[in-house]
Amino acid sequence: MSGALALGWRNIWRNRRRTLISMSAIGFGLLLVIFYSGLVGGMMGDAKHQLDNGGMGHVEIFAKDFRAKHDVVLAMPDVEQWRQTMKLPEGSEVGSRVLARGLATSARGNEPVQVFGVTWDDEKNLSAHLRHVKAGALPAADDEHGVLIGEQLAERLALKVGSKLRLMVQRTASPPSAVAPGGSAEMGADLFRVRGIFHSLAPSIGQRQVYVSQASARTLLDMERGAHQLLIQLADPTQAEVVAAQLKGALSPDLEVLTWGELLPVLRRMEALMDNVVFFMAAFVYFLVGLGVLNTMLMSVLERTREFGVLMALGTRPAKVIKVVLAESFWIATVSVLVGALLGSWLSWHFGQAGLQVIQGSDSFQIEGATISTLVKTRFIFADVLKATSLVYFMALIVGLYPASRITRLQPAEALRRT
């Protein structure tokens, strides 16, 4: 076999230009498959891992009908008790929120906002923008009049750290004795001080979301306890379905337990679409690789028909002729795959570290509430590289069988007559 390999190596360089063109085409095709699959995998993986850019969870729990009606009466009273009994995968982050729609007013004007009542230590792990406070700081845990706002809202209302901001929200109807200062039975209002201004990748979040402590939010809404939303972010988003199924079985049927795929169906459809795109692109590249190797080997074999006729006339067995032709396919496939796999892996690794800006002039784009960074880091997974490399290698060797079998079917006398 070593003799066939040595002879095959010499033969492929008899027509150096054709061999190099064929190797370049195969290597470049493999490079494209590895890099593009890494890019798509990184993009979709980032989309699921970056739900905290928009403050979303991989699993979210609401009182039944709250998402449809946004009625603050529909709260979950036993949130903290559930948190203590939940069995979640290691590395999970959990937090609850009190939610309300309201109006933020300053001396400059007013803006419609969504008020988030949060526990600061939990929320900074769930919302990326709370980790990017550009001015001031997060309010203290016991600060019931501190508010955190986005830079877009601060600009529109001419606010800075220390400025006064009045929040008014629609709340549960309650007797006049329970009305908060400046409020009414139908509306709750209070005066806050801006403690910090955050930066968000999504301008809509910076303009429309304000954060206060849960105690402050409950006071505004005249709630004694409970929350409207419970978020769970998982270290591995693929576990969302399993976790949601377990929670549905353990919690009350009056609750809605939703996964990221149910909250963002368009993201799931995009994932399926991207998988199909990668599959058909890879299939097309493999087809072209097969044609390229077949063309190279067929031309090479046909040009040497007389040589093979002489070998067979001298008693060379057809099996040995097949070995020589397959050795040529082996060397073309090996060199092409090594170069293509190394370059494709390096590109995937490099952009996995540095990132690739897929949309110029913007930090992010939004998909039905999910905020996705435009700086995509490709995913480098050795198993994916090995699979793509093996398929190209297998394709290159298989198509080499046809030229080899074709030449061995000729009789030596017939092969010698061909020019």
What does this structure look like?
The chain is of the alpha+beta class. Helices cover 51% and strands 20% of the residues. It contains 16 helices and 14 strands. It has helices spanning 2-12, 16-49, 66-69, 79-85, 120-126, 151-156, 203-208, 214-221, 240-250, 260-263, 265-303, 305-313, 318-354, 382-399, 401-408, 412-417; strands at residues 59-63, 93-105, 110-118, 133-136, 146-150, 164-170, 187-198, 209-213, 229-233, 255-259, 356-357, 364-367, 370-373, 375-376. The strands form 3 sheets. A 6-stranded mixed barrel has the order 2-3-8-5-7-6. A two-stranded antiparallel ribbon has the order 11-14. The longest helix is centred in the C-terminal third of the chain and has 39 residues, at 265-303. It starts with a helix and ends with a helix.
Feature tags:
single chain; 419 residues; alpha+beta; 6-stranded mixed beta barrel; two-stranded antiparallel sheet; 16 helices; 20% strand; elongated
What is the terminal-to-terminal distance? Answer: 29 Å
Count of DSSP helices?
A: 16
Strand order of the largest sheet: 2-3-8-5-7-6
Helix content: 40-55%
- Radius of gyration from CA coordinates: 32 Å
Main β-sheet, in a few words? Answer: 6 strands, mixed, barrel
Beta content comes to 15-25%
The helix/strand series, from N terminus to C terminus, equals HHEHHEEHEEHEEHEHEHEHHHHEEEEHHH
The chain-level mean pLDDT equals 83
The coarse silhouette is: elongated
Give the total of beta strands: 14
Could you name the ranges where pLDDT drops below 50 across 5 or more consecutive residues? 173-184
* Helix/strand/pairing category: alpha+beta
